[in-house]
Amino acid sequence: MMLAIGNPITSIHTSSTCTALLKELEQIWNDIGESEKEKDRMLFELERECLEVYRRKVDEAANTKARYHQTVAAKEAELATLMAALGEHDIHSPIKTEKKSASLKEKLASVTPLVEELKKKKDERLKQFADIKAQIEKISGEIFESHPANDAVSSTTVAEEQDLSLRRLNECQTHLRTLQKEKSDRLQKVLQCVNDVHSLCGVLGLDFGQTVGDVHPSLHGTQLEQSTNISNSTLAGLEQTIDKLKTERKARMQKLKDVVAKLFDLWNLMDSSKEERNCFLRITSIVRISESELTERGVLSTEIIEKASAEVERLAKLKASRMKELVFKKRSELEEICRLTHIEPDTSTAPEKASALIDSGLVDPSELLANIEAQIMKARDEALSRKEVTDRIDKWLSACEEENWLDEYSQDNNRYSAGRGAHINLKRAERARVTVTKIPAMVDNLINKTLSWEDEKKTHFLYDGVRLVSILEDYKLTRHLKEEEKRRHKDQKKLQDLLLNQKEAMYGSKPSPRKSNSVRNTNGYRANGNGNGSVSSMPPTPRRNSVSGGTSELLTPRSYSGRHNGYFKEMRRLSTAPLNYVAISKEDTMSYSSHCGSEPESPPQV
Q1: Are residues 339 and 424 in the same domain?
Q2: Which of 147, 192, 425, 471 could, after both became Cys, cross-link 531 (CB 3.0–4.6 A)?
Q3: Which pLDDT score, from 0 to 100, does residue 503 have?
Q4: What is the pLDDT of residues 369-385, one digit of tens each?
Q5: CA atoms within a 13 Å half-sphere pointing along the CA-CB vector of 579
Q6: Residue 161: helix, strand or coil by DSSP?
Q7: Total number of domains in the chain
Q8: What's the chain's average pLDDT?
C-alpha cells in the first residue's frame, strides 16, 4: 500500500502511475501463468521493498532534521554566548519568537546573520579590551615593575573573553584613568623628591648625579628617550635617600654647632681680635639658621666643617701654650664674682696652688680650667639664689650709712648755720631719721629671711666667710649696747649739769662754757657741704668688742669684710665664741636682759 505525501495533485498522479504498473505486472503474471500463491508472494516482496525504501528515506529525513536541529541549537547557543559576553540583552532570538510556525531552515536563516553581526562586534570589543589592557599593563609595569608570564596573560585573556560587556569596558577604562592619574601623581612626586635631593646635595656639597643615579639611572639619565622611573622601589629609594641626607644634614649641623661653640669659647679665652673672627663670619652665621632654612650651596660641606675644625685645633694648640695665663684669668674672674657676691672662693684653685700644680705637671691645665669654669657656674648659681637676701642686705647697709651720717651730722655744732647747702642737709637728716627708725625691723626681717634660706639650702648663709645671722645678732647686740651707752652718757651729762647748777647757786659764779669739739664718728663718716658721706679707712679690731671703752662700734658686713690677714682669721675663729660678758658692767647686763625680755614691737618692714 502506497502513502500519499506532499502535494495532493502529485499524490494522485503517483497513485495512478502505481496502479497502472500493478495492472501491467498482473497482466504479465497472467501471461506467464503465475499461480495466485506466487503472485501474492511477489506482491508481498514488492510491498516489503517499498517499505524499506520509505523507511530509508524517512531515516535520511530524520537525520537531516536532527542535523538542522543541532545546527540551529548551536547557532542559538553561540548567539546566547555572544549576547551574554557582549551584554546585549535587547536582542530576542527568532527561534523563541517563531518556535511554532517557522521551519528549521527559516530559523537557521534568521539566526545566522545575528551571529555573524555579534561576532564582528565581539572582535571589535576584544580589540578595545586588548588596547586598554595593554595600556594598563604598561602603566602597572611602570608602577609595580611587574612582568607577568605569557601563560598567565593568555589564561587571563580567555577568562576576560567571558565578559565583554560595556559595563566591564567602562570599568577597565576607569581603571586605566585611575592608573594614568596615579602615574601623573607619582611622576610629580618623583620630580619633587629629585628636587629635594638636589637641594640637600647642594647644601651638603655632594654629587647630585651620583646620588640619584644610585637610586635609578633614569633619574639622571642623559638619553632623551629614557623615561623617568616611577616604580615603588624608585620612590622608596628616593625617600630613603632624602631621609639619609636629612640625617646627614642634621649630624653636620650639630657637628658644626659644636665646633662653633668651641670656637667661641676659645675666642673668648684667647681674646681673639674682631678681624680674626670675621674670617669665620659665614660659618658662625650658619648656626643661627634652622636646618629647613639652609639653602645656600655648600654651607654644610665637609670643607666648611674641616675649616672650622682646623681653626679650633689651631686655637687649642695656642691655648695649651697659654694655659697658665688662662687659668689665672679665669681664677680672677671667679674671685671677682665671689667678691661682688661676698662668697668665699674655692681655695683648691687658688693662684698659688694652680701655679704649683701646673708647674709640677700633676694636673692637666685643661682639667684645672674646666674645674674653675665649673666653680664660676656654681658661684653664679649661688649668687642668683642669694639675690633676695643680698638685696635686703644692701638696703640695710644703706640705712646704716644714713644712720652714721646722721650721728656725725648731729655732732656738728654748725649744722644750723646759714651756710651753703645747710637746707639740703636738713632735708637729708629728716629722711635719715625716718630710715633709722626702720633699721630694727629691717634687721629682724633679714634674719628671718636668712634663716628661711638656710633651712631651704641646708647650709649657713656666709657673707665674706662669716655667717650672716651671727653678724646680724652681733649688730643687734652692739646697737643695743650703744643705745644703752648713749642713755648713760645722757644721764651722766644731766648729773653734771645738775652739779654745775648747784655749784653756781652756792658760789654765785658760773664756769666758763666748755668748748664743744666735733667728735669724729667711729665709722669714719663725716658731713660735707652737700650732705654726702665718704668712707675712711678704719683699723681692724676683733669681732667681739668690749663696752668698757666708752663707745661700742656697730658691726656691719662691710666692717667684717674690711678686716684682713690675721685679724680676719681671728674674727672667723671668734664667730662662734661666747659673748664676753666679763667686760660688761652689771648695770649694762641688767639693761640688756631687760631689753631682750621685753623688746618693743618692730616697725613695719621696708
Answers
A1: no
A2: 425
A3: 82
A4: 888 889 999 989 988 98
A5: 13
A6: coil
A7: 5
A8: 75
